[in-house]
């Protein structure tokens, strides 16, 4: 059996929301990284991926469960586990060489050896000759090479990478990723296990032996996907395209409800609404309805056509699914009959369909509408709903979720909103109809 490098059992973590209430970000996470594997961790924004990585790096403690590296409990950063950050995290006043030597200094390595090892690592990372440069003199891609060199120079047993390529342009990110895989696959580095957090499905499929998908609120491991294809992988091969499709499907799928509640299952009032707007929802729906897709599309192909990044497309797919306008299955997205009707409808009918779906499928919108109807004035301050959401979400999330509900609600003519007063109200015609009826 392969030896375990990192082992997490029943790990939980809560943070305090703005009003001091604890909010559980991770709950009962079990995960083992074994020798010889690259694992990619995917999940929606805010699902707790970085938190999990920081726990493994010993940068923050878990609240519950056990976290160990080669059988030893992790309570602080340990030699043997190194991390690469999205933001590069270089010291701007230190040279490239000094930045790379930092990790060795912390380990008490003598100056001569530090210099030698840093030189060799800079050479390996294609940075030979840049040792004396300051970070600001380098391009983003080269800066991240420094960040990676600083982690690798310590000869880490385990390398943790937190969206290490996402701040780079696509080509630069791909180049760097390929270089790291070459170092790994050729055995040029002593690292025995790599864990990468990513937003990018293609990146995960190109790199990993295993993909783990984290669900949100609280973060739990929702699915695991093994990729049994030798590296280097060809991104254009049918095999890799199929894998990307399947992972797309897993990512956009809402967790399957228990069969008994299939018809009635609805998210909670405090469900974190997907961060997308009506414009994007309409645009993606139209793209899907039009040729060449005519109602059904392969997700990566739709992504190419839409020219939107995954971070914007995923929430939009989720919104379409939530509202019953489209369904995602196995790497495809298909319009439902109602979604088809929506696509063919004029503006007024679109808004009506949207409003009805909102009331049926988004409990927060239904709650706002019901509370407004119960008020003689038909108006309510938005604070009330912010407070309601803050019972489960942190302040910023609560505000964002309400903002989305308000935008959707206005479009669906379910309620109106006075921006200056921060007041929600029933649409005028509802109040008139109630007064006369
Ligand atoms: N120090 C902290 N104090 C309070 N809340 C925090 C703290 N760190 C993270 N959180 C919250 O925990 C949740 C998970 O954050 P985390 O950064 O781990 O998610 P993520 O999946 O990495 O997101 P992203 O993909 O956007 O980077 C978020 O709601 C975040 O706001």
What's the arrangement of secondary structure elements?
Blueprint: E1 4-16, E2 22-34, E3 37-43, H1 49-56, E4 64-69, E5 72-73, E6 81-84, H2 96-106, H3 111-124, H4 140-152, E7 158-162, H5 170-185, E8 193-197, H6 201-207, E9 210-215, E10 220-226, H7 238-252, H8 278-289, E11 296-298, H9 299-306, H10 310-322, E12 326-329, E13 332-335, H11 337-344, H12 347-361, H13 363-374, E14 379-381, H14 383-390, H15 395-411, E15 416-418, E16 423-425, H16 428-436
Parallel strand pairs: 3-8, 3-9, 6-7, 7-8
Antiparallel strand pairs: 1-2, 1-4, 4-5, 9-10, 11-13, 12-13, 14-16, 15-16
Bound molecules: adenosine-5'-triphosphate.
Characterization of this structure:
Residues 255-266 have low confidence and may be disordered. The longest helix has 17 residues, at 395-411. This protein starts with a strand and ends with a helix. The protein is an alpha/beta fold and 437 residues long. α2 packs parallel to α4 (140-152), α3 crosses α4 and α11 packs antiparallel against α12 (347-361). The chain has helices spanning 49-56, 96-106, 111-124, 140-152, 170-185, 201-207, 238-252, 278-289, 299-306, 310-322, 337-344, 347-361, 363-374, 383-390, 395-411, 428-436; strands spanning 4-16, 22-34, 37-43, 64-69, 72-73, 81-84, 158-162, 193-197, 210-215, 220-226, 296-298, 326-329, 332-335, 379-381, 416-418, 423-425. It has a six-stranded mixed beta sheet with strand order 6-7-8-3-9-10, sandwiched between helices. The radius of gyration is 25 Å and the shape is globular. 43% of the residues lie in helices and 20% in strands. It folds into three domains: 4-252, 3-Layer(aba) Sandwich (Rossmann fold), CATH 3.40.50; 278-343, Winged helix-like DNA-binding domain superfamily/Winged helix DNA-binding domain (Arc Repressor Mutant, subunit A), CATH 1.10.10.10; 362-436. The chain is built from 16 helices and 16 strands. Residues 15, 25, 43, 45-51, 394, 397 line the site of adenosine-5'-triphosphate. Adenosine-5'-triphosphate binds next to α1. GO terms for molecular function: ATP binding; ATP hydrolysis activity.
């Amino acid at each position: 059996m392969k030896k375990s490098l990192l082992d997490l059992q029943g790990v939980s973590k809560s943070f305090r929301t703005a009003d001091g209430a604890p909010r559980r970000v991770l709950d009962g996470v079990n995960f083992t990284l074994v020798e010889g594997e690259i694992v990619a961790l995917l999940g929606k924004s805010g699902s707790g991926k970085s938190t999990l990585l920081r726990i493994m790096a010993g940068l923050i403690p878990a609240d519950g469960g056990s976290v160990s590296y080669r059988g030893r409990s992790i309570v602080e950063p340990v030699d043997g586990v190194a991390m690469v950050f999205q933001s590069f995290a270089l010291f701007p006043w230190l040279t490239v060489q000094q930045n790379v030597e930092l990790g060795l200094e912390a380990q008490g390595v003598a100056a001569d050896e530090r210099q030698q090892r840093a030189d060799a690592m800079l050479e390996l990372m294609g940075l030979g000759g840049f040792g004396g440069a300051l970070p600001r003199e380098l391009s983003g891609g080269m800066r991240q090479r420094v960040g990676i060199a600083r982690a690798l120079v310590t000869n880490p047993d385990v390398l943790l990478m937190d969206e290490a390529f996402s701040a780079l342009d696509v080509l630069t990110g791909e180049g760097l990723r390929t270089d790291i895989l070459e170092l790994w696959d050729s055995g040029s580095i002593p690292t025995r296990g790599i864990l990468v957090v990513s937003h990018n499905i293609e990146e995960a499929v190109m790199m990993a032996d295993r993909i783990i998908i984290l669900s949100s609120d609280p973060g739990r491991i929702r699915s695991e996907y093994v990729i049994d294809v030798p590296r280097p992988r060809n991104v254009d091969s049918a095999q890799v395209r199929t894998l990307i499709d399947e992972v797309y499907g897993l990512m956009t799928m809402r967790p399957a409800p228990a069969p008994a509640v299939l018809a009635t299952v609805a998210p909670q009032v405090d469900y974190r609404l997907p961060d997308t707007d009506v414009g994007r929802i309409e645009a993606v729906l139209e793209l899907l309805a039009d040729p060449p897709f005519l109602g059904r599309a392969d997700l990566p192909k739709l992504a190419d056509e839409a020219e939107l990044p995954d971070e914007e497309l995923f929430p939009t797919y989720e919104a379409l699914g939530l509202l019953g306008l489209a369904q995602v299955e196995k790497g495809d997205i298909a319009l439902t009959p109602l979604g088809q009707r929506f696509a063919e409808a004029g503006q007024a009918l679109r808004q009506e369909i949207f409003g009805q779906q909102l009331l049926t499928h988004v409990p927060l919108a239904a709650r706002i509408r019901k509370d407004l109807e119960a008020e003689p004035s038909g108006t309510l301050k938005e604070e009330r709903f912010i407070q309601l959401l803050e019972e489960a979400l942190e302040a910023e999330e609560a505000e964002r979720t309400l903002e989305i509900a308000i935008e959707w609600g206005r479009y669906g003519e379910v309620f109106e909103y006075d921006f200056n007063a921060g007041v929600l109200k029933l649409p005028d015609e509802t109040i008139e109809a109630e007064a006369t009826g």
